[in-house]
Hints:
Number of strands of chain A: 6
CATH topology of the largest domain in chain A: Dna Topoisomerase Vi A Subunit, Chain: A, domain 2
Oligomer: homodimer
CATH class of the largest domain in chain A: Alpha Beta
Mean pLDDT of chain A: 90
Helix content of chain A: 40-55%
Largest sheet of chain A: 4 strands, parallel
Radius of gyration of chain A: 22 Å
Largest interface: A-B, 58 and 58 residues
Shape of chain A: globular
Strand order of the largest sheet of chain A: 4-3-5-6
Amino acid sequence: MAFSPLVDELVESLRCLPGVGQKTAQRMAFHLLEKGRGGGERLAGALSAAMTGVRRCDSCQNFSDTPICPICEKPERHTGTLCVVESPSDLLAIEQAGDYRGGYFVLMGHLSPIDGIGPEDIGIELLLRRVRDESVSELILATNPTVEGEATAHYIADRLDGTGVLTTRLAHGIPVGGELGYVDGFTLTHAFRGRKPLTD
Amino acid sequence: MAFSPLVDELVESLRCLPGVGQKTAQRMAFHLLEKGRGGGERLAGALSAAMTGVRRCDSCQNFSDTPICPICEKPERHTGTLCVVESPSDLLAIEQAGDYRGGYFVLMGHLSPIDGIGPEDIGIELLLRRVRDESVSELILATNPTVEGEATAHYIADRLDGTGVLTTRLAHGIPVGGELGYVDGFTLTHAFRGRKPLTD
Lengths: 200, 200
């Protein structure tokens, strides 16, 4: 390599970021060195603080600085409803939509026997314990609409069968603002089956 | 925001990287927190070391850990030929091609009167001093084939007019492995004008 050890190490380290290859890492390193030293130093501090300081919430498994995350700490979020999502970014999307005001449980993945990921790896026992202990009345299974997401939702629903807890799944249908011509057949079929009277 | 201050600060800091917006920064932060804590800590260290430790080479202006960069330090690279490039990534591309064995001068930009960037901002005086002091016989002006790059090359060539230093510009033509049908008209015209006998 033509560069100094420090620059080489920076380029190599940047490749740990998802979607960043050799060329992009180089471009990022040169950009930071040329125009963004302040930003680079801030990023170094933030990375170091987050890598050591961020843990999982003991209650919902979401990322948190404290043993219990800010959402779980709010008494008004304990509404008897829990929304189960696969990842923190799913939770963020729901929070940004702003309508749901209940609690969460973040699985940090989905069941995947082929990868050796079973119920205990994604905290389903912890979830079931919470459902029992906090007298949860509804569990919204908002896992992704993929094969693994559906399987995970059905597994959780099966485990709660007979306990009287209502398990629900998010509605399928056409996205708001979308064009019918671009919607796939499965989604359209779901949208037709779930149609509602206009006066609803 | 739904997240902890540490995660928020990490997402915000990642946005200083070029081409990284809110969504990508989020994805990067979650990836590091979930699966890449080791990589994240390594990146923090590399960033911090590079931001404080990397400087410009006193001789060629390239990024370097030392006052004189590894290329300028090698006596065999002082061949009387200097290659002038706009950025460290251009230098890297030429080094990776592996054919050129002379010295370099990195302008870290190009002349751009509209942005207030004049000859002194990109180190042209330092370059001219080197040409004089090191008895350079050829200056390869490998600035980009853009309006600003051409203007910068012509400005340097004009300043050296009458000094006996040979100034050259990289050849234009069709890229190796390219298809003629996709080559633009200007490049084709250059390729025709620069054609060579097959026995060459």
